[in-house]
Amino acid sequence: MHILIATDGSLDPTTAADFASALAGADGSVTVLTMVEINRNMLRDLRSLFGERVVDTSHQDAEYVEMKPNTGTAVGADWPGDDEMLNRYLDDQKTLRTSDLVTALIAKGVTPEVTVREGEAASGIMTAISDLAVDVVCVGSHGKGLFEGLLGSISTKLARRSPTPVLIIR
């Protein structure tokens, strides 16, 4: 059985690992997925700022930008490129959001595949369900989204639309 655990980092790792390891069994597999929404206008802003001013190093995202002083308005020569910046950010978010869960799964004897995808959470998870041919999806009942109460939670959307069973974990 192939289990997909979709998390934004708010899912309790121990509880999720308990359920996923029991469902997967000895012959099953587990994939941990996190979806990251990226505002593409952010890249335009980063390009325009790169090389124009010094970043406040106390800011947690400064490591992604690493701006250098420059008086020009064009992207500086040190700009690694949009794709590289996005890949760095996605990799860091994957680690930040999934590391505790991966540790808990490994402690249960399960070695998960870990992946990050860019996009809106509910539709991205639905795409992953078909791409990865999963048998069960595990999600948390409450995520970090600010507007879930108004728009409907991701777990509710998945429970209504998923072609596979959805285990909603409190």
Structure description:
It is a single chain. The protein is α/β, with parallel strands linked by helices and 170 residues long. The protein starts with a strand and ends with a strand. A 5-stranded parallel sheet has the order 3-2-1-4-5, sandwiched between helices. It is built from 7 helices and 5 strands; from the N terminus they run βαβαααβαβααβ. The longest helix has 26 residues, at 82-107. Helix 1 links the parallel strand 1 (2-6) and strand 2. The protein has a single domain, classed as Rossmann fold (3-Layer(aba) Sandwich), CATH 3.40.50. The protein has helices at residues 13-24, 41-49, 62-65, 82-107, 121-132, 148-151, 154-161, and strands at 2-6, 29-36, 113-118, 136-140, 166-169. The protein is globular.
Stretches with pLDDT under 50, minimum 5 residues: 52-59, 68-73, 146-151
H/E element order: EHEHHHEHEHHE
The neighbouring-strand order within the major sheet is: 3-2-1-4-5
Count of distinct structural domains: 1
- Strand fraction: 15-25%
Main CATH class: Alpha Beta
- End-to-end separation in angstroms reads 22 Å
SS element count, helices: 7
